[in-house]
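General statements about sequence and structure are easier to judge against a single worked case. When preparing material for the folding task, we compiled for one chain both its residues and its backbone structure tokens. The amino acid sequence and the backbone structure tokens for this protein are reproduced below:
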Amino acid sequence: MSAGAALLAVFVVAGCTDDPATPASNQTPPTPTVAVPTAAPPAANIKLGPTGPSTAPNCDGVPIPVGTDPQQVIGANPTAKTFCFAKGLHRITHALHPEAGITLASSEGAVLSGSVELTGWQQDQQHWVVRGALPAAYKLKGKCEDEKTNPCQPGEQVFLAGKHLTRVMALDQLKLGTFFGDYKANAVYLADDPTGKDVEMSRTQTAIEAAAPDVTIAGLTIEHFASKPQGGALQVGPGWKVTANEVRWNHAVGIMVIDGDQTVVSGNTVADNGQLGIGQYSSEGVKLTGNLVTRNNTDGFWIADWESGGIKSTRSSGEVSGNDIVANRGIGMWSDIAEFDRRITSNRIRDNAADGIRYEISYQATIEQNVVEGNGFGTGRGSGPSLWDGGGINVNTSSGVTVAGNLVKHNRNGIAIQSRTRGDGPRGKYVLKDIVIEANQVVMDAKTASTGVVENKESPAGDGAIRFSRNSYLIGDKQAERFAYRGQTMTWSQWQAAGFDQDSVSS
């Protein structure tokens, strides 16, 4: 048991109540006889095992040698079901379209790259320049943290000796560790001397696109693709199995499931992608399990509120379980817009810049047995300490949501429940109702603002819409205002007097 779990067990088993010297008029209800959680969820004591290509099974099939066009190899073997990429770097110049039922895999350490080599550098005063490598200017989209120059929108990334360089938007901003792409002049500028070093630029947008169902992708490293915002370097379709891959350093989304019902994405390492680790759109019954999703949003997408960070799902359903979602520059796990029958269970969601879990304008979800720790301390526009800015777990204008058995520890806010005016969805108006917050352990230290409910005037939370029950809180000073409801901050006693957590305990 971790130190945090042990501490929680101690304070709950002890049946922490208010000081007996407190005047009777201010005392909270007596220690409840109903069960409250006495141990952290199992996810607190489980570490994610190995992920990525080292865990892939042996690949036995038609070989795809380095330097060949994989699509031609696939086309030349119409009866084959398994194709094995040879060890080495495969430069992909156009998206692959696997046929139904086939496997694209490697057990030898194959790397699929969407980059081109940049050579022929010339010194230009204090800078270095290469010309003719950029594509023609194209329509841009995406919400950036910097909304004045929008550096996150262009897709090409530059890597110097394997190191990702940061884009600047003007030549006079160039410094060591950055690059400037001048699309009008078709020129790429560096401040670093590239002499004798490998310089690559992502150019191809997508490695593999969904053109048929029931495809398996295993054991591949997929990197350096210039994917467009909201687009994936690996685009996944219905019935696909995506397992034991490493998807890294792509401009937008690493793995994107689109219209991919019943797909399984498991055991992958999804790291350092420019916008988001894993995306899911319009896909039912998807399982995202046992993945390491870390350090995504390297290219400056908006941290607080635009699909940056770990995992984002929209208009979909399914299971997100057993993942380690850590240190992403955005939200850890975000369900948004008409999600239904969603299960977010047994994940470790830690140190993400925005909310740990956000469930927004959606229906019917179970969020349980997760460890949600150290989230919400990112800086940037839209970030802040109020419950409107989210929390370890944030439920926003949704219905039928149960949040149970989670350890919510040392986040910017604990559990934030929000009621806003958000319009209608496919299963009725988006409203906050039938929310159950039960049997969670919430640790709010000095850095944590509060737990509670916020609502706008047009959409007040109805009586009985939210139930807090059988939770345990570690809050330190009982007189500190660590809770909030209807525009007021509250002490523990006032929170209970408002009708919440009357069978819960605090210490």
Remarks:
- The longest helix spans residues 3-13.
- The two ends are 20 Å apart (CA to CA).
